[in-house]
Amino acid sequence: MEKGYLALILHAHLPYVRHPEYASFLEEDWFFEAITETYIPLLNMMDRLVNDGVDFRLTMSVTPPLAGMFADSVLQNKYIHHIEQLIELSDKEIERTKYLPQFHETAKMYKGVFMNSRYVFAEKYNKNLVNGFKYFQDLGKLEVITCTATHGFLPLMENNREAVHAQVKVAAEDYKRHFGRGPRGIWLAECGYNPGDEEELKKAGISFFFVDTHGILHGNPRPKYGVFAPVYTRSGVAAFGRDMESSKSVWSAEEGYPGDQRYRDFYRDIGFDLDMEYIKGYIHPDGIRKHTGIKYYKITGKTDNKQPYNHFEADAAAAEHASNFLFNREKQVEYLYDVMGGKKPLIISPYDAELYGHWWFEGPKFLENLIRKAYYDQDTVRLVNPYEYLQDNPTNQVVTPSMSSWGNKGYNEVWLEGSNDWVYPHLHKVADRMVELANKFTYADDVLRRALNQAAREVLLAQSSDWAFIMKTGTMVEYANRRTKSHVTRFNNLYDMILGNCIDTGYLADLEFKDNIFPNIDYTVYQTADLTR
Predict the structure, then answer these.
(1) Using CA atoms, how far apart are residues 514 and 174, in angstroms rounded to an integer?
(2) Which tens digit of pLDDT belongs to each residue from 442-501?
(3) Maximum distance among all alpha carbons in the chain?
(4) pLDDT-based confidence at 252, cuts 50/70/90?
(5) What's the predicted TM-score (pTM) here?
(6) For residue 180, which of 214, 230, 130, 239 has the smallest C-alpha distance?
């Protein structure tokens, strides 16, 4: 007998990294690697499930920057070059390892992965993976939700409500362009929620969002069912809280499944291991070593003496872990069902999508095993998406969640501390100036409209929470600094040109070429509310 629900939520996001001015740009590899290792494996998984008649529900954000990169012809063609290079490298690896049986089967596996990736990307989905995610959404299996426009962290925009409005409104409009209808749900960047933000969600026609556990538990009034049922905010938009128990089994570095010694080691890559003369054609043209995606070792343990990877052994581990995860959810649901007096609990299990496949190579196999086992092997837990749950369970408590995020310590510290606090005076200033421009020029056309629209793009790109996060973690800090400064500078240049009535059309065209996100953006999204009535 069904006693509860499980909602698997995958947050798919990458910052908008697009550099058409360079033939090869190192940070664009973030996108290319995720296509091969996460997005295509997830699409292949859903394809197999549908073909086998397995009914499933999965929820996945495709953030506006990610959707924009999927749809961009420059990045599409660069990915084709990228994957064809990997196919060539895998052919060399098959030859190199033919007398190394501990690696040879793995080399052949990679050749199959890369060949399949090229086929799925170029032929099946016509170079735009949005087509794939839309297909499964239209089938009713996948619920695609949006995110703030550039993954902007809303709690640190509280001083400018027009900026909050723009992050939500632009995202909703961009979603319609890609998916043919409005978004039902949103992943607030970093699960960053500030009371009152739900009013902007309601205006955009969004029905639900997610918060971290303490966002619900510290809500007012205290929620009767904790995080095991959604709550309605006073605007009528529903908030779903993360279940810590199911999250920990995957996320925890010490206790989580991805740390099992049988799984592939992410860090041992031939881009670093092999001789420079052999590998130089497949790393950065400047000779900077990088991950190729070909990795021959398993985690093994806390040792430098890594053992060869065996994908059959790893696949067996993924099946074992899927069984364990489902067993634990069944027991969790049975316990909660009794504690909640016969009300069916809902377990919300959210994860970064890129964990599945990129960081945890076997993650998509774990997920597929879990979905199949949930369908065939039990009837205690039913997979649902949040919108479907609300349709079946329309009566829920009204609670105002507390300000919260899913970052370290649960609030704003990750995005506002000593390494990155310098950005906020600039971000607040450009947002204020954008509102000033939108209010001054209530109508514009031709070059002036283009300049105002580009100014809005630069503000949004500067507000990406990714830059502050990178500064905090200490990875690729120079790039994050440069991106923040460049978007602020570009905006300020446009601001001066617009107010001075001296717009440099060549400069404007160059920015439109480089920072081409949101082709249909309308700068009036930044106008204050009383001007738009």
Answers:
(1) 19
(2) 999 999 999 999 999 999 999 999 999 999 999 999 999 999 999 999 999 999 999 999
(3) 74
(4) confident
(5) 0.96
(6) 130
| H or E segment and range at residue 299 | none
Asked whether the beta carbons of 383 and 44 are under 8 A apart, the reply is: no
Q: For residue 425, with 0-12 CB atoms within 10 Å meaning exposed, 13-18 middle and 19 or more buried, which class applies?
A: exposed
**What is the residue whose two structure tokens read 């992965």?**
113
If you average pLDDT over residues 353-368, what whole number do you get?
97
379: left (phi over 0), alpha (psi -120 to 50) or beta: alpha
Residue with tokens 């990178």: 470
- Radius of gyration of the chain, Cα coordinates, nearest whole angstrom: 24
Contact 472, 415 (CB under 8 A): yes
CB atoms within 10 A of CB 304: 6
What tokens appear for 510 in the block?
């160059």
Superfamily of domain 4-408: Glycoside hydrolase 38, N terminal domain (3.20.110.10)
Phi/psi of residue 5, each to 5°? -130, 155
- 146 in Cβ contact with 187 (< 8 Å): yes
- Where along the chain do the CATH 3.20.110.10 domains lie? 4-408
- For the stretch 453-469, pLDDT in tens is 999 999 999 999 999 99
For position 533, what pLDDT does the model report? 39
Is beta strand 238-241 parallel, antiparallel or unpaired with respect to 231-232? antiparallel
| N-terminal to C-terminal alpha carbon distance within the chain | 52
Q: How far apart are CA 13 and CA 199, in angstroms?
A: 24
- Six-digit token pair at 383? 């997979």
Number of H helices, E strands in the chain: 21, 9
Topology adopted by domain 416-532? immunoglobulin/albumin-binding domain-like (1.20.1430)
What is residue 251's predicted lDDT score, i.e. its pLDDT?
A: 81
Instruction: Say what percent of the chain tops pLDDT 90.
Output: 95
Q: How far is CA 391 from the centre of its chain?
A: 26
**CB 111 within 8 Å of CB 87:** yes
Using the CB atoms, write b or e for 306-326: b if 16+ within 10 Å.
Answer: bbebebeebeebbbebbeebb
Model pLDDT for residues 380-410, shown as the tens digit of each residue: 999 999 999 999 999 999 999 999 999 999 9
Q: Which residues pair with 382 in a beta bridge?
A: 5
DSSP assignment of 50-85, as one string? HHTT----EEEEE-HHHHHHHT-HHHHHHHHHHHHH
> Per residue, what are the HEC states of 192-209?
CECCCHHHHHHHCCCCEE
Q: How far apart are CA 190 and CA 147, in angstroms?
A: 10
pLDDT score recorded for residue 58: 98
CATH 1.20.1430.10 spans which residues of the chain? 416-532
